[in-house]
Amino acid sequence: MPSLAAAQDAFEGTWKIDVSKAKMPQKPDVLLLQNGRYECKTCVPPIAIKADGTDQKVTGHPYFDMIAVKIVDDHTVQETHKKGGKVVATSQTVVAPDGKTAAFEFSDSSNTNADPVTGKGTMSRVAKGPAGAHALSGSWRTTSYGDVSDNALTFTYKVDGDNLSMTSPTGQSYSAKTDGSDAPYMGDPGTTSVSVKKLGKNALQETDKRDGKVISVSKMTVAADGKTMKIAVSDKLHGTTMSFVAMKQ
């Protein structure tokens, strides 16, 4: 069997990410909630809006065009994202009394054509916000995820000669040759094309693009026993890296 086909056969099947083994970005998110305004300084593009619970228009974000930020109390904040007048995501973040950690939960359908992705997570504080600002203000690093719905963690690869196809329960899909040529990426408002290139035995590199601009590069490596896959992601938009481990189902 040709070496290319042998390498691709290792990817065939359904995989599920083990969130307990995820390594999140080290670069923190920088937030400011003060004087009735909310800012996400590390969002791309940055967000700066009123924080009075009403819909505020934002531009440059493919997944939403309105955000409402509601201050529940001095440690709790709720966000609602809309696109085209429809709610596509909700979240609540609660900062611990000592201000050192925060817990969040979310429901997000901005990148799905099926049921929303739901989950919870924790953050740890890297730097404090300015004096007098809401407890959410400052720099935060996401430390863990939990109770994430299966539709966000599962994906399926199919191999046909030199062609690799991917489908996910949330409605994303592509069918691309493994020679690095671009192919359409379907079902994702923020990703328009993808290229897949063989790197070696049991290894592939996926490059995602938005309107011709590279937004992320992922390297997938299947272990020799074929049971696990390491996924290393370089997020070019935010300048961060993260890694995951997926288990063969």
Helix and strand layout, with pairings?
Layout: H1 3-9, E1 13-17, E2 29-34, E3 37-40, E4 47-50, E5 56-57, E6 66-73, E7 76-83, E8 86-95, E9 101-108, E10 117-128, E11 138-146, E12 154-160, E13 163-167, E14 173-177, E15 179-186, E16 193-200, E17 203-210, E18 213-222, E19 228-235, E20 240-248
Antiparallel strand pairs: 1-12, 1-20, 2-3, 2-11, 3-4, 5-6, 6-7, 7-8, 8-9, 9-10, 10-11, 12-13, 13-14, 14-15, 15-16, 16-17, 17-18, 18-19, 19-20
Biased composition (Polar residues): 168-178
Region (Disordered): 106-126, 168-188
Protein name: Lipocalin-like domain-containing protein
Main attributes of the structure:
249 residues, 2 domains, 10-stranded antiparallel beta sheet, single chain, 10-stranded antiparallel barrel, Lipocalin, disordered N terminus, mainly beta
Return the domain count.
Answer: 2
Helix content: under 10%
Rg from C-alpha positions? 20 Å
User: So what's the overall shape?
Assistant: globular
What is the average of the pLDDT values? 95
Report the major sheet.
10 strands, antiparallel, barrel
Question: Unreliable segments (pLDDT under 50, ≥5 consecutive)?
Answer: 1-8
Order of helices and strands: HEEEEEEEEEEEEEEEEEEEE
Helix/strand class: mainly beta
Q: What percent of residues are in strands?
A: over 45%
Protein name: Lipocalin-like domain-containing protein
Biased composition (Polar residues): 168-178
Organism: Rhodanobacter umsongensis
Region (Disordered): 106-126, 168-188
